[in-house]
Amino acid sequence: MTDAATQPDAAGPAHAGKGEPRHFARMVTIWLVLSLVLDPLFYFLVGPHVPPGTMTSTAEENQFDFTLLVVIALPVLLGVWVYLGYSIITWRASKGGDDPVGGEQARAHLGVQTGWIAITSVIVLFLAGYGTYSLIDTHGAGGGQGPNPVWTPTAAHILPVQVIGQQWAFTYRYPTFGGFESKQLVVPVDTTIAFHVTSLDVIHSFWAYQLSIKADANPQIDNVAFTTTNHTGSFTVRCSELCGLWHGAMYNYGQVVSKQAFQTWATTTEKATAANTKLLPPFAWTYVPDANGADGGYYNDTVVPYSPSEVYGAKQPAS
Amino acid sequence: MTISAERETEVVYPDPTPPSAGWFQGLPARPGWLSQHLGTAMVGAVLGYLLGHWLGNVIASGYDYVANSGTNAIANTGGIALGALGWLLGIGAINYPLAKLIGKEPAPEYETTSWTKYFRYTADHKVVGLQYVIGVLLFLFTGGLLAMAIRTELLTPTSHVFGPGTYIAIVSEHGTIMMMMATSVVVGPLGNWLVPLMIGARRTAFPRVEAFSFWVFSAGYLVILTALPYGGFPTGWTGYAPLQTQAGGGMISYLAGFALIGTGMMAAGFNLAVTIVNYRAPGMTWSRVPIFVWSILATCALLTLATPTLFAAGLFGILDRTAQTAFYVTEHGGSSYLWQNLFWFFGHPEVYIMALPGFGIVAEILPVFTRKPLFAYKIAAAGMIGVALLSFFVWQHHLFQSGINPDMRPLFMLTTELISIPTGFIFLVGMGTLYKAKIRFEVPMLFALALFFNFLIGGVTGVFLSDVPVNVTVHGGFFVLSHFHYTIMGGLIFAFFGGLYFWLPKMTGKTMNKKLGQIHFWGMFIFFNLTFFPMFLIGLLGQPRRVFQYQHNLQALNDFSSVSAFFLGASFLVFVANFVWSIFIKPTPSPANPWDSLGLEWQTANPVPYYNFERIPVVLTDPYHYGETDAPAVADLGEPELVPVGAPAAVADEQPVDDRPPNAAG
């Protein structure tokens, strides 16, 4: 009301004609130029270095998907930023200028609104569509899929590795090598690997960063994630789900080695640890910890454990 | 134009001074220090805690598991439960139902101008709103100090200041306090204070429920602080279950604290939703309701529908620890997924509880400082309702890598990405309003514009997280941490401060210092971005959340982030200084309508009288007629005869509305 009194010349849309720069065209030009420059720059210069690198198939796909999302997101970000920046510079009150024109045309614009909804919907549906396509195309195989994975690699030979999370370390069992347990994660190159992730106590998350593998370790759940190794090197394994006191220190390093070296390492270690393996529970996809064991001991030591040791080794029922 | 036309005339309420007198009768007539106030609430809390703790020991000290573990969860729970009850009894929150229960008429509340009303249980929504302002600021600054401690620890890649136990307790306490605060940070202070004024009501629908929500909220604050003397809890704010079951005594504080906060959220949401639906003034049609009220309505729907799940989840957790049930114990038939599902079924709507009110605030601020009507009002309202609806269908995206049914991933990826369409409407509204505007860069406007910058980054990175393949790398790391700080802090907290600078002159009748406000804004905006943007990179480079050790090559980025965080923290000191200086030390009276807003809340007298409006206003139009030479008055506040000729006929008749004073509410 007070404002209306101070704007005698706000006569309507008529005064917006001559002399008025074509704001929208200017913004679109700035946006287009910036997008056309920055998108290829990112794709070609930054894209190849986007984490988590190319050590495995899932890492490579993950890297491509991330880069693609940035290439789509950058123009969106730039669009809003250019608009905001342009508005703040052009239409600031301290610049003087015409008083804004209210009324119906300032309250709604069918074309703008429909256009906005259409454009955002197209982007979003494309992303969801592409996401689903890439997921089915096993880009997402590196994420834990539970005991009954849906999108699985088609490789003829898959090396199973069991990852056991417990407070506060990961250990690894190799069922195809007599089920020996190792504190070291070693996998062969050019091989499809199935990580079977489980936990003995609380929820952990097995994050093999350079392999682009992340799977929660849940007690009594066999959470499976796949990847195919591309080249040799070492990688970091961290726990990425808060698991208590020493969560921050729950990490170690793994190796992708040549097939030959892996075969040598595995057979040697199997022999060297044979005595230990006998003491371990027989290999199983999940383990029910002793009631006095890793889950913190809710029971008096004299209480017969709820989970008798016979349960050890029981195959997890298909759910 | 038929709004409230059929509303029944209220029968005359009985004389508020009944003849009978019980122990709770006549309390307001006593000297202030003898009546119920914050002090008696504290006494009640302490006595209740001691009693509950003693009872718990009497009941359970002989149990084997108590003897073995050395902690008595029943005593902890009993202490906290009776402590909270004592707090509520002490403040007088339960006087009314108790009086009704024994067939007595409760003592009425009298209008008072004394400052002591801010320390009492009161039915005045404006007092409750200001109590909430102080409450959420206390909450925010407590959580902020803990954040400073986190960033101090992360200055070096190895553990150096705190031990791992202290560190994880600090992280958990920070997250929980901030999340609890953020649930109520706008609905509590601004929602309670503004909504009745914006819709032309004299009070909220259930003033006692409203006051109850605040005192339960503050009890939740005290309870979550009790986790510290119990040694904290190690689960973070998400409280994942096997770890939760294994944790020490502080876990009870987390579970009970969230249950209490949840009770407050349900009460606040229920009260405001009913108020908005039923207490709109004549002529306040749904297409004239200020957009902030729409945002609060959508938020209230989430508060009332999502929070019961949290309450139940917390109750199950307490039962697991006290009665030895096994909701979350896998070996005994429970499931570690159950907590995750329950928690996120609440937790994701919760995320939008922490976004929608912020959108409402900026959409309310923009038209005032651009002198333009709000662009695409209907789209804005529809977007808020759309976000609220969709937010119930996205929770499993928190569990993409957890090993639950993988078939569901495409669905939850789709719903998660779909929600960015209605969320994006706020950008359409904001950008449309800025078009050919006349932007005044007052402090509230700066905060509102900052929301668009910050929330855009937060929203776009959310799309990265929703993409399952990319989620493998960014889930559970600093990337997601930065993402939700950009949405909650960059969105909601910026909007909250914008709202405070905008409405505090009305709420307190005093002017905030502009210079200090600008320093606060620029400090907060710059250092917020310098703190959190590097965290996207830190996360992409492989640092998981909630760790006290990280790779040495990430130290530079972490240090940069930490130092920025200290400056970010300092910017809040500027706000505190401004607040204390401008409101208490050297108050400058504020003009009645300092920003030239057309909103109904600015049209009442300053300070706002106890009954808000002399007469229930007749609303003539929406409050966004900026930029019009003959802008109509938003409402007729005078006698019915003064309704301008040509105003809609139906609303010109005086409507029999429920305009009983707050203290007479049923």
Task: Describe the global form of chain A.
Answer: elongated
CATH superfamily of the largest domain in chain A: Cupredoxins -  blue copper proteins
User: Structurally, how many domains make up the residues of chain A?
Assistant: 2
- Gyration radius of chain B, rounded: 25 Å
Secondary-structure blueprint of this entry?
The complex is a heterodimer of chains A (about 325) and B (about 675).
Chain A: H1 2-5, H2 23-46, H3 57-90, H4 104-107, H5 110-136, E1 158-166, E2 169-174, E3 180-182, E4 185-188, E5 192-199, E6 204-208, E7 213-217, E8 223-228, E9 233-239, E10 251-257, H6 259-272, H7 274-279
Parallel strand pairs in A: 1-5, 4-10
Antiparallel strand pairs in A: 1-2, 2-3, 5-8, 6-7, 6-9, 9-10
Helix pairs in contact in A: 2-3
Chain B: H1 38-60, H2 64-69, H3 73-91, H4 95-101, H5 125-153, H6 164-184, H7 187-198, H8 207-225, H9 241-246, H10 250-278, H11 291-322, H12 336-353, H13 356-370, H14 377-390, H15 409-418, H16 420-434, H17 443-466, H18 468-474, H19 478-508, H20 514-540, H21 555-585, E1 618-619, E2 635-636, H22 649-652
Antiparallel strand pairs in B: 1-2
What report would you give on this structure?
The complex is a heterodimer of chains A (319) and B (666). Chain A is α+β, with helices and mostly antiparallel strands and 319 residues long. Chain A folds into two domains: 21-91 and 112-137; 158-290, Sandwich (Immunoglobulin-like), CATH 2.60.40. In chain A, 35% of the residues lie in helices and 19% in strands. Chain A is built from seven helices and ten strands. Chain A has helices at residues 2-5, 23-46, 57-90, 104-107, 110-136, 259-272, 274-279, and strands at 158-166, 169-174, 180-182, 185-188, 192-199, 204-208, 213-217, 223-228, 233-239, 251-257. Chain A is elongated, with a radius of gyration of 29 Å. The N and C termini of chain A lie far apart (67 Å). With 666 residues, chain B is an all-alpha fold. Chain B contains 22 helices and two strands. Chain B has helices at residues 38-60, 64-69, 73-91, 95-101, 125-153, 164-184, 187-198, 207-225, 241-246, 250-278, 291-322, 336-353, 356-370, 377-390, 409-418, 420-434, 443-466, 468-474, 478-508, 514-540, 555-585, 649-652; strands at residues 618-619, 635-636. In chain B, strands 1-2 form a two-stranded antiparallel sheet. The two termini of chain B are 28 Å apart. The chains are: A alpha+beta (319), B mainly alpha (666). The interface between A and B is large, with 114 and 108 residues.
